[in-house]
Amino acid sequence: MFNPIDLFKQRLTDHIKRLNRYLRYIFNGHFMIALIFMVIALAVYYQRWIENIGEEFPVALVIALVFGFVVSYNPLQMFLQEPDKVFLIVKEEQMKRYFRLTLVYNYMVQLYVVLIAAAAVIPLYAAVFPEKDKLDYVFMLVIILFIKAWNLISNWYMLKIRHVNIRIMDKILRTILSISLIYFLLIGKFVVIFIVFFFIVIANNIVLARKQSGLAWDVLIENDQNRLALFYRFVSMFADVPQIKKRLKKRRFLSSLVNKWVSFKHDSTFDYLYRLTFIRSSDYLSLYIRLIIIGGLVIFFVPNIWLKIIFALLFIYMSNFQMITLYYHHQTSIWLDLYPVSKKVKETAFLKWLVLLTLIQTIIFSLLFLIWVDVASFVLTFALGTLFNYLFNLNYVKRKIQN
């Protein structure tokens, strides 16, 4: 006999096993060290910023924006699979208990985001609203958790509607109303009005959803597949993920540069392969550019010059560490074993490309210091980046790929 609770337990167990298998790759020692350092550095400057905050700064609006986006962002993972649209659609009435359990699971899992935002906002809230005590903040958090629950339920009802534009407009409207409700809750005005509007939107969602003849199984399954694909793409930055479908982009202009720069010789086989893989793959080039942009913004806005240099080296390290997976990109392809090229040539080609990428990133980060006409920091950053390039790539990475 079909039991939706047993199905939920089985799907949840499989989901947790999948998370455990991949999360250990994400939270490895190197990544955790970089993450802890960034959190500590940002926390120090966040505290200093709070101490010097001006009265004209719109604190209530900032807090409302933080919590408004947190409560409005409710990605749902229902643990559905492609065959379910055939085998479970006939059990739709019995699946109600299954979906209730998944909603409870999604809400409990997403509470950590609310708690992180609450912990980050507490110092700012205490500094700007000294007249309010802890009970006021706890009361606001209770209201926020309540808004979060209704947003999640509303999002579930909207997934019964196939029209994408309706779902997008609903999400935008709910986000605006959530931000407005929290803002007026902070300043103590017009709370009742926005509560009424909020529940009107939710009621409208329920009415729209109940007009549907049944669950939109195709929408639910597509939503789950997109969530899973997003998770796999994130994990792929840290480890090889067999489940992910590698996407290639032509990028004709950049690819043509490879043909010009790499000579058509026997020893340049892997030079050509690694450069073209880096350019055409959807993983490496976008990750490399993102880390340069984020690192550049951090360097630009961090006020302390020594922290700027440390962050420059940190982002150079992060880029290098992620690019190591490029060496193993084609390891499952048997055709490379047919190449009449030694492993030494393969290793040399990869290290040359990695050293070049690191050098480019080092030059970009070093040039940022010329914005402040700080020649000494420019020279120091370039020298330390070059030293790191040699020690990390030509020592650590070289030994790693040779093992």
Main sheet specs = none
Question: Strand portion, in percent?
Answer: under 5%
The assigned structural class equals: mainly alpha
Name the helicity range.
Answer: over 70%
How many separate helices? 15
Order of helices and strands: HHHHHHHHHHHHHHH
What is the overall pLDDT average? 81
Count of strand segments: 0
Distance between the termini: 53 Å
Catalogue the unreliable spans: none
The Rg value, from CA coordinates, equals 26 Å
- Shape label: flat
Question: Would you spell out the secondary-structure blueprint of this structure?
Answer:
Layout: H1 4-26, H2 29-51, H3 59-72, H4 84-87, H5 96-128, H6 134-158, H7 164-187, H8 191-210, H9 217-235, H10 252-261, H11 269-280, H12 284-301, H13 305-323, H14 343-368, H15 375-402
Helix pairs in contact: 1-5, 2-13, 3-5, 3-6, 3-7, 5-6, 6-7, 6-8, 7-8, 10-11, 11-14, 12-13, 12-14, 13-14, 13-15, 14-15
Concise description?
The protein has 403 residues and is mostly helical. It has helices at 4-26, 29-51, 59-72, 84-87, 96-128, 134-158, 164-187, 191-210, 217-235, 252-261, 269-280, 284-301, 305-323, 343-368, 375-402.
Task: Explain this structure.
- The protein has 403 residues and is mainly alpha-helical.
- Helix content is 74%, strand content 0%.
- It has helices at residues 4-26, 29-51, 59-72, 84-87, 96-128, 134-158, 164-187, 191-210, 217-235, 252-261, 269-280, 284-301, 305-323, 343-368, 375-402.
- Helix 3 packs antiparallel against helix 5, helix 3 (59-72) packs parallel to helix 6 and helix 13 (305-323) runs antiparallel to helix 14.
- The longest helix has 33 residues, at 96-128.
- The chain is flat.
- The relative contact order is 0.08.
- The mean pLDDT is 81.
